Amino acid sequence: MTILSFWIQVVKMKNAMRFTVCLLFTLSITANAARPLRHDPSRPNVIVIMADDLGYADVGFNGCKDIPTPNIDSLARDGARFSSGYVTGPMCGPSRAGFITGQVQSRFGWHGNPNQPLNPTHGLPAGIKTVAHWMQQQGYVTGGVGKWHMGTSDDQHPNTLGFDDWYGFLSGGRLYYPLDHASYKGKYLTMNKPWGMRDMHHTMPILHNREPLEWEQYLTRELTDYGLRFIEKNRSDPFFLFMSYNAPHEYLEAPVETIAKFPAEKMTTIPGVKPQSRSIYAAMTYEMDLGIGKLLDSLSRLGLSEQTIVWFLSDNGGMKRTSDNRPLRGAKWDSFEGGLRVPLVVRWPGNVKPGTVLDFPVTSLDIGATAVSLAGVDLAKTDLDGVNITAYMTGQTLDAPHEELFWRTDRKIGHECGVLRMGDYKLIVQESKVQLFHLRDDLSETTDLSQSEPERVQSMLARWKELDQQSKPSYFTSIQKGKNAYQYVDYEWLKGSPHYHKKENQ
Fold first, then answer.
1. DSSP H/E element including 242
2. Can the keyword Translocase be found in this entry's annotation (predicted)?
3. 8 A C-beta contact, residue 292 and residue 247
4. Overall number of domains in the chain
5. What is the 3-state secondary structure (H, E, C) of 356-370?
6. What pLDDT does 347 receive?
7. For burial by CB atoms within 10 Å, which of 17, 196, 349, 395 has the most?
8. How crowded is the C-beta side of 490, counted as CA atoms within 13 Å?
């Protein structure tokens, strides 16, 4: 029945009450048909864009001159920049484990980098809850794209750990082109190694959920395209997207036409960095920035910008041989600021004032805690270690969210290393050696104050040891000496890879 014919029937009605009911019914139908699908504005979408091994000074808003990052910079211009933004570890695996669980990772026994991608102990412990789980339980669609590096067993798979949709690779690094790319001929495929791969860590297949698939283009572009599809598909629902680029992590690879934009002789001179390496690294960072621009344009086109919080950070400091972490001391793997302090920005139009600079220390744990809290979860009923910093980044409070920050950053199992920041003071505990720095006066950590302030050292060391009581021993196990790390685990998803060639009894 059309609306016109419906009203003809109504006019014939004698009962005024029926007329009123029909009028209200018709108005409700018309209103519902015209109203676009909108989710609760108090439950914003959340996108976390994580770069891999990006240097502190390799973005424009931190002073980079040789790599243009206009889209990343736009997040700082239109939102807030955290000058003291930290991650929970100076290397990929621990940092990502801390972020995705929302916990200081040493609390569940994660101390170093998982270096055996098919060893089932080298990843998140079975049954652990993640930020994605919390968002999922609040009705959010959860998606992950890119690098995982938190285990490859079924218990450690993103789909098991709260992600409705996963598109990426599970190891800690990945070549940027498919294995049959012409440039790899004779380099990475061999029948003398399990699954026909010489370097398993960097040649694992791209998965859509648990299914291996073929892909053709430069990986950064491929990941961006899937991120765009996720946003488009879920534009009418609240969503949480972990956009985990592997750029600019080694291997150093980029399209030749992009590398050509960055002649080696025009790269910034950085101690220990070869101009040729810097050129490719710049191209990789530039490609990532282009991808981020496409994601932001998609939000604008779909009318989602104002209801979406976008975070950007690196998972740790940049590598010494490619990156610029100045004026910070150190790099990836280090407990100095160059390993732990990263570029960190947030954009939330209408809530975060454009151009805001926040100097108080925050950590990647606060990103998850803020997202979960905005989704409607009472943080007091969770085991998350972060703080909801909504009031801080929107200017509702000027206090610092943390009185102290704790790290256990063991580079190798059995080599104790930790950090405690209290106010402007930072203590580094490294086996039997301790160092003390005052970061406001000495950001580059050049002057060790441990001899001149012994009482402060003892007080902070005692506090670090107290907090470290919450740490659990490492649960990573090593493969038996002399045995190949990969011959004991034969995952079904690996068998779907086009380069799977495992032989019996190998």
1. strand 239-244
2. no
3. no
4. 3
5. EEECCCEEHHHHHHH
6. 98
7. 196
8. 12
